[in-house]
Design goal:
The complex is a heterodimer of chains A (1001) and B (91). With 1001 residues, chain A is of the alpha+beta class. Chain A has 24 helices and 50 strands. Chain A has 6 domains: 14-116, Roll (Ubiquitin-like (UB roll)), CATH 3.10.20; 163-294 and 428-499, 3-Layer(bba) Sandwich (FAD/NAD(P)-binding domain), CATH 3.50.50.60; 308-424, 3-Layer(bba) Sandwich (FAD/NAD(P)-binding domain), CATH 3.50.50; 508-603, Arc Repressor Mutant, subunit A; 666-857, Probable tRNA modification gtpase trme, domain 1 (Gyrase A, domain 2, 2-Layer Sandwich), CATH 3.30.1360.120; 862-1000, Probable tRNA modification gtpase trme, domain 1 (Gyrase A, domain 2, 2-Layer Sandwich). In chain A, 49% of the residues are buried. Chain B has 91 residues and is mainly beta. In chain B, the strands form 2 sheets. Chain B has a 4-stranded antiparallel β-sheet, with no helix packed on it. Chain B has a two-stranded antiparallel ribbon with strand order 1-2. The longest helix of chain B has 9 residues, at 36-44. Chain B is globular, with a radius of gyration of 15 Å. The relative contact order of chain B is 0.25. The chains are: A alpha+beta (1001), B mainly beta (91). The interface between A and B is medium-sized, with 24 and 29 residues. Bound molecules: zinc ion. Zinc ion binds at residues 6, 8-9, 59, 62-63, 65 of chain B.
Chain lengths: 1001, 91
C-alpha cells in the first residue's frame, strides 16, 4: 500500500480526475491540479535529486519557480524530453514521465556521492585550482567530471512542437496576479487603460487565495474568500487580457518585456499534437506594474539541505492548496512569525507539529499565542546545530543561542521529525525591477533590498516593494496607483482591512553550530553546493567584489540563479568583511528569470525559415541541371555543375577549360547593383573610388576600388556610365548592402550639397555572363543586328540592345581575362535570356560554370576577391594595385590614410603569387608561410589566401599575403604542414596571359 | 530595446535602426593638409562616454535617413533627437 499524505480535499485539486505518472520508472498517482512536486509529496517521496558537486540527496524545497533542488528531466528518451525542469512547476498529466538528474546510476545509489565523503577536499575554487594543472591532464579530468556531474540531457531528436512569437502593445502590463496585481490590473482596466495581467501559475490569486490566515480579514471576510470574489469580477472587465502560465523572462529598457506563455505543457500527449506549445510574448507597455511578490528565505545552518527540509511557506502551500502534508512529524525553525502560520495550519488539519525552534527571544503576536495555546512547544532563543537522515530527515539537534547570536551554549537536544519547515523571512522579488535597470536601496531594519530609482515608467507594488502585511499592501497600493495611473480613486480606497501587525524578526545570516565551521555544511546555494564555508574561504583568499566571490564559489550561478540564498551570501560577506550590506550591492540578476526553451526563443524561425535566402531568376534551371550551391551572404549561388558523378575538383577543371577553350556562362545576377543619378554623380564617384571618373565617356565601363577612410580596401566592382548623369555601379555580392549604406551615409552627412540619388537595383536585373573565345559568336547569334566589332563595341564599354521584345544592357567586361559579355535584363526575363544563351551556345559547347570556376579563372589572372584575398587590413598598395590609385585627385575616401606612416611601411603584408616547387601540390588556403624552418618561435610571414590547380596552366597556383612580399620575387619560402613541408617560390600574382591578349581575341 | 522617435517617421522599435557612432565628427575638408596625428584624431579617437553622449543613428529598416541623438549611455535615456545638419544643443 503506497503512502498517502493527502489529508484534506482541496478546491484546487480535482479528485475526480486521477492521473498516473512515472517518476524514476515507478508509477504513482495524483490528481488534476497537482504539480509533480505535490503529487510526489502526496506519495511521501521527498528524495528527488542529487546536488551538483557533492551529489548529496536532495528533496523538494519550495512550491514555486525558485526551486533549487527538485530539478528533473521530463520525458527522457522521447523527442519531447526536456532537462532542468522544476518539479514544482510541472503540472502532471496522464503519461508524464520524469526522472532525477545529477545521479548516476540512480538517485538511491549515486557514484558521485563519493564527492560528499571527500568534500573537505572540494572547497570553493577546487575545480579551478586542481583540474587546471597540469594543463595536459584536463582531458582526463574532464571525462570524469562530465560523466558524473551533468545538468540533465539535451534532446537528440528534432523538437516535434510548434513555437510562436507575438507582439503585444498595451497601456499597462501587470506582472503577477497576487492580491496587489489583481487590484492594480482591475483599476487600470476600469480606467480605460488597455491592460495585460500575466502570472506564471495556472491560477490567479497568488498566496492570498489559499492562505486562510487567522488574522487577515478584508471587508469582514477572510482574505481568500474576498480575493475569489475579486477574481470573479475580473473576468467581466473590458480592456483586460489575462494570461496564466505566463512567466516574464526579461525586462529590458523602455518597458520592453519578454514573457513565455505555456500553452500545452500541462496537456496529455494526444492533446498536445499540432498545437502551439509555447509562445514568446514581446510586450511593449506604456506602463509596467510589477507585483512579483516575495520569496521566503531559508535559514543557513549545518546540514540544512536534507530531503524533508523545506521552506515553511511551501509546507503551508502544499497543505492548504494541494491538501498534502509533507511529513507526519513536523518541526518549524524560524526567525519571524510566518512559520507560526504554517504550524497552525498543520495543527488545524490534525497533523502533528513537534516543536517550533525560534531564534528570537520572544514574540507576543496573536499568531504566536495561538500556537502556544494549541499546545505546540516553542524553543525560544534556540537554533538548530545539526540534522540527521541521509535520504530523508529523521532528526534535528538544537542548542541555545548566545545573546550575540555567534555561538551556542548548553546541552544539545535531539528532536525526531521527518519534515522541517524553515522560515528566514521574506525577500522581495526585485529581479525584474533590476533587470530593467532599476536601482535598489537596502532597508537596514528589515534586511531587504527594495526598489528605489525607477528607470522607466513603472511601479513596484505589494511585497516586491517591501509591503508584507495585507493592510499596508492595500493602503500603499491605493495611494501609489492613483499617482502612477493619474486616477482620482480606486475601488479599494475605503476598504476595511485587518491584519497582524507584529513584525519582529531576528536576523542571523549564518547560524552557529557547536562544531567548527570547517566541519559543517551550511548550504547557501543548494543547486551549486556552495556553503557559507566556501564564501568565507573566498574572502580569506582575498576576493572582495561580490561578483568575484559569486564566480569563485559559484554561488547563485545555477539555473535558479540563487533565488533563495543570494541574500545570505551577501550577508555573510558583509559580516565577515565588516562592511554594510547596502554598500556591498548585489550581484546582477540577468534574464531569463526562469529558463526558456530554445524553441520559445526561435519561434517559427526554424528549418528553411531560420534565415531568409535569396535566389536568382536562374535558380530553378540550376537546380534542374544538378548544380551544387554555396551560400554567399543570403544568396544561393551555383557553386559548380557536376556531370555524371564528378567530384568538385573534376567539375571545376572541366568548367575552367571549357571557358578558356570555347565558351562558359555564369549567373552573375547576385552582384550588387546601385543606380546612381544626379548632376553630381561623376563628382560623387570621384570621391568614393580611388581612381578618376570625370573623364569616363558615356557608354564606357571602369573598374573601381573603394576604400574605408582608414585606407583599407572595402569593396570593388565595375561601374558603367549609362548617360551624362546616370551610372550603374556593381559591388561584390556580399558587400552590396554595406556599400549602399556607406554611400548614403557620406551623401547625407558629409556631402549633402551633392545632387546625387542612389537606388538599390540588385534584385531588379538578372545577369548572364558569357565568356571565352566563342562568346562573340554566341552573342551574335542571339542579337544578329548588334555591331560587335572592336571599333563599335570594345572592351570596357556598354550598349543598349534588344532581344526580341526584351530590353537589355550589355557590358563588355571580364573577370576571367577572356573576351566576355554581361547581359543584363529585367529580372523576370533572366531565365529566358539564360536559356537563349544556352541554346545559341550549344554548337560551341557552352558550359555553365559556378562560383568555384569563376574564382579559379580570376586567380589565374591575379584578380583579387575582396574578402578572400583581403581582410580589412590591405591597402591597394599592399595589393600591388598602385595603378588604380589616382595621384592627381585631391581627395577620395581613404586617400589621406595611404600616406600615414603605418600604411607606408614597406614590411606590411603584400599580395604575391606562389608557385609550388612540385606543381602537383595544391596549397591549403589559410596555410602559414615561413622563411626559416628551425626558428623558435617561428617568424610567420603571412598566409595563403587563394589556391587552385589550374588546368589551363597545368600547375598549382596560389595567391598569398606575405610580409615584404613585393621585395621577395623569386625567393624560396616554406609552408609547414602537419605531415610535410611544402617548398614554394614567390612570383608575380598574374599567372596567365599577362599581356591581356585574350580579352580582344 | 529602445523606442526611437525617427524625425521623419515617428516612434519605431530599435530593431529598425542602426547605431553609427559618435556624432559631430566632421570629415576634414582638406585631409592632405593634416599631420598624421591630426588625421588619426579624426579617424580613430572617440570619446565613448559613460553618460550623456552625442550619437549618429540611421533608420536603416525604414526611411534610411541619418539623424542625431543625445543619449545617456549609463541608463539609455534618449534625451533629444535632431536632424543631420542641425546644430547640437549646448548641453
Ligand atoms: Zn525614419
Amino acid at each position: 500500500m503506497p503512502a498517502n499524505l493527502r489529508v484534506q480535499s482541496s478546491e484546487f485539486i480535482d479528485e475526480t480526475v486521477r492521473i498516473s505518472f512515472k517518476f524514476n520508472g515507478k508509477t504513482y498517482h495524483g490528481f488534476k491540479g497537482d504539480t509533480l512536486a505535490s503529487a510526489l509529496l502526496a506519495n511521501d517521496v521527498h528524495l528527488v535529486g542529487r546536488s551538483f558537486k557533492y551529489h548529496r540527496p536532495r528533496g523538494i524545497m519550495t512550491a514555486g519557480s525558485e526551486e533549487p533542488n527538485a530539478i528533473v528531466q521530463v520525458n527522457d528518451k522521447t523527442n519531447r524530453t526536456e532537462p532542468n525542469v522544476r518539479a514544482t512547476e510541472v503540472e502532471i498529466y496522464e503519461g508524464l514521465e520524469a526522472s532525477s538528474q545529477n545521479c548516476w546510476p540512480s538517485v538511491n545509489f549515486d557514484i558521485g556521492g563519493i564527492n560528499n565523503a571527500i568534500s573537505p577536499f572540494l572547497p570553493a575554487g577546487f575545480y579551478y585550482k586542481t583540474f587546471m594543472w597540469p594543463a595536459s591532464f584536463w582531458e582526463k579530468y574532464e571525462y570524469f567530471i562530465r560523466h558524473s556531474a551533468g545538468l540533465g540531457k539535451s534532446p537528440t531528436e528534432k523538437d516535434p512542437d510548434i513555437y510562436d512569437h507575438r507582439n503585444i502593445h498595451c497601456d499597462v502590463l501587470v506582472v503577477g496576479a497576487g492580491i496587489s496585481g489583481i487590484l492594480a490590473a482591475k483599476n487600470a482596466a476600469k480606467n480605460n487603460l488597455k491592460t495585460l495581467l500575466v502570472d506564471e501559475k495556472n491560477e490567479l490569486g497568488g498566496a492570498t487565495i489559499y492562505q486562510n490566515r487567522e488574522f487577515n480579514k478584508i471587508d469582514n471576510q477572510s482574505s481568500s474568500d474576498w480575493i475569489k470574489k475579486e477574481i470573479q469580477e475580473l473576468r467581466n472587465i473590458k480592456n483586460l487580457e489575462i494570461k496564466t502560465r505566463t512567466s516574464v523572462a526579461a525586462y529590458h529598457g523602455y518597458n520592453y518585456l519578454l514573457a513565455r506563455e505555456n500553452l500545452t505543457d500541462h496537456l496529455e500527449k494526444k492533446d498536445k499534437q499540432d498545437k502551439i506549445r509555447q509562445r514568446l510574448l514581446k510586450i511593449r507597455a506604456k506602463k509596467v506594474i510589477l507585483a512579483t511578490g516575495a520569496l521566503e528565505r531559508p535559514l543557513i545552518f549545518n546540514n540544512n539541505d536534507r530531503p524533508g527540509i523545506m521552506l515553511s511557506s511551501a509546507v503551508k502551500k502544499y497543505a492548504d492548496f494541494y491538501g498534502v502534508v509533507s511529513g507526519k512529524k513536523n518541526v518549524f525553525f524560524t526567525n519571524n512569525d510566518s512559520a507560526y502560520e504554517s504550524a497552525l495550519c498543520l495543527h488545524n488539519k490534525g497533523i502533528k507539529v513537534e516543536a517550533v525552534i525560534d531564534i528570537r527571544e520572544k514574540s507576543n503576536s496573536n499568531i504566536v499565542k495561538a500556537v502556544e495555546s494549541a499546545g505546540i512547544r516553542i524553543h525560544w532563543s534556540h537554533t538548530i546545530v545539526d540534522t540527521k537522515g541521509y535520504k530523508r530527515l529523521n532528526s534535528i539537534s538544537t542548542m541555545k543561542l548566545s545573546n550575540d547570536g555567534l555561538s551556542v551554549t548548553g546541552n544539545k537536544t535531539d528532536i525526531s521529525c521527518d519534515c522541517l519547515g524553515i522560515a528566514g523571512g521574506w525577500t522581495p522579488a526585485v529581479h525584474l525591477f533590476t533587470q530593467s535597470g532599476g536601482k535598489l536601496t537596502f532597508d537596514e531594519n528589515n534586511k531587504v533590498f527594495l526598489p528605489n530609482k525607477y528607470p522607466s515608467d513603472q511601479l513596484s507594488v505589494g511585497s516586491c516593494n517591501g509591503d508584507f502585511k495585507i493592510k499596508e499592501i492595500i493602503s500603499n497600493l491605493s495611494n501609489n496607483l492613483k499617482q502612477f495611473l493619474k486616477i482620482e480613486k480606486t475601488d479599494f480606497d475605503n476598504l476595511s482591512v485587518e491584519s497582524e501587525v507584529e513584525n519582529s524578526k531576528r536576523n542571523i545570516w549564518l547560524l552557529p553550530s557547536d562544531r567548527a565551521i570547517g566541519k559543517t555544511k551550511p548550504f547557501v546555494d543548494y543547486q551549486n553546493d556552495a556553503t557559507a564555508k566556501d564564501i568565507k574561504l573566498a574572502l580569506r583568499e582575498g576576493f572582495r567584489s561580490i561578483e568575484h566571490v559569486k564566480r569563485y564559489t559559484t554561488t547563485g550561478m545555477g539555473t535558479d540563479q540563487g533565488k533563495l540564498g543570494n541574500m545570505h551570501a551577501l550577508g555573510i560577506i558583509a559580516d565577515t568583511a565588516g562592511v554594510k550590506m547596502g554598500e556591498l550591492g548585489t550581484t546582477t540578476f540577468r534574464p531569463p528569470y526562469t529558463p526558456l526553451t530554445f524553441g520559445t526563443i526561435v519561434g517559427r524561425n526554424v528549418g528553411e525559415y531560420f534565415d531568409t535566402f535569396r535566389r536568382t531568376p536562374m535558380n530553378d534551371w540550376q537546380i534542374k541541371n544538378k548544380a551544387e550551391f554555396e551560400n554567399v551572404g543570403q544568396w544561393k549561388r551555383a557553386w559548380y555543375y557536376p556531370i555524371n558523378g564528378e567530384s568538385i575538383h573534376e567539375a571545376v577543371q572541366r568548367e575552367s577549360m571549357a571557358a578558356r577553350e570555347s565558351a562558359g556562362i555564369l549567373d552573375a545576377s547576385t552582384l550588387g547593383k546601385i543606380d546612381i543619378q544626379g548632376s553630381d554623380a561623376s563628382e560623387f564617384l570621384n570621391r568614393v573610388y580611388t581612381n578618376a571618373w570625370s573623364k569616363l565617356g558615356i557608354g564606357k565601363c571602369r573598374y573601381g576600388l573603394m576604400l574605408n577612410e582608414d585606407g583599407m580596401v572595402f569593396d570593388d566592382g565595375v561601374t558603367t556610365r549609362l548617360s551624362e548623369n546616370h551610372y550603374l555601379m556593381t559591388t561584390t555580392t556580399g558587400g552590396a548592402a554595406n556599400v549602399l549604406g556607406k554611400l548614403e551615409d557620406y551623401l547625407q552627412t558629409e556631402w549633402p550639397e551633392l545632387d546625387v540619388y542612389l537606388t538599390s537595383v540588385t534584385d531588379h536585373y538578372a545577369t548572364a555572363s558569357i565568356c571565352g573565345p566563342n562568346s562573340k559568336k554566341i552573342l551574335n547569334k542571339i542579337i544578329p543586328d548588334l555591331d560587335l566589332s572592336e571599333e563599335s563595341f570594345p572592351h570596357m564599354s556598354f550598349k543598349n540592345a534588344q532581344i526580341g521584345k526584351i530590353k537589355c544592357r550589355i557590358m563588355r567586361i571580364s573577370f576571367t581575362g577572356e573576351h566576355s559579355y554581361e547581359i543584363n535584363v529585367q529580372a523576370n526575363y533572366g531565365l529566358d535570356i539564360w536559356e537563349k544563351c544556352m541554346e545559341a551556345g550549344k554548337e560551341f559547347n557552352i558550359t555553365p560554370y559556378g562560383t568555384e570556376t569563376m574564382h579559379l579563372l580570376r586567380a589565374e589572372k591575379g584578380f583579387i576577391i575582396v574578402g578572400q584575398d583581403t581582410d580589412g587590413t590591405m591597402t591597394p598598395i599592399d595589393l600591388q594595385m598602385d595603378w588604380i590609385v589616382s595621384k592627381k585627385k585631391y581627395d577620395f575616401i581613404g586617400k589621406r590614410s595611404l600616406y600615414r606612416s603605418d600604411t607606408m611601411k614597406e614590411d606590411r603584408k603584400q599580395l604575391v603569387g606562389l608557385l609550388t616547387d612540385d606543381p602537383s601540390i595544391v596549397l591549403e588556403e589559410g596555410a602559414q608561410i615561413v622563411s626559416e624552418l628551425n626558428q623558435s618561435p617561428v617568424n610567420m610571414l603571412g598566409h595563403v589566401t587563394s589556391s587552385y590547380y589550374s588546368p589551363n596552366l597545368k600547375k598549382s597556383i596560389a595567391l598569398a599575403v606575405v610580409r615584404s612580399g613585393k621585395k621577395m620575387m623569386g625567393k624560396k619560402l616554406f609552408i609547414p604542414m602537419e605531415d610535410k613541408t611544402i617548398n614554394v617560390t614567390v612570383v608575380n600574382p598574374v599567372f596567365f596571359d599577362s599581356e591581356n591578349k585574350r580579352l580582344n581575341a | 530595446m529602445f523606442v526611437i522617435n525617427c524625425p521623419y517617421c515617428g516612434e519605431r522599435d530599435q530593431q529598425e535602426f542602426k547605431a553609427g557612432g559618435e556624432a559631430h565628427i566632421e570629415r576634414p575638408k582638406q585631409p592632405t593638409e593634416l599631420s598624421d596625428d591630426e588625421w588619426a584624431e579624426y579617424l580613430f579617437m572617440r570619446k565613448n562616454i559613460k553618460g550623456v553622449q552625442f550619437e549618429r543613428w540611421n533608420h536603416a529598416h525604414g526611411c534610411r535617413k541619418w539623424f542625431n541623438m543625445v543619449r545617456d549611455t549609463s541608463n539609455d535615456e534618449i534625451k533629444l533627437i535632431y536632424k543631420m545638419g542641425e546644430r547640437p544643443p549646448s548641453e
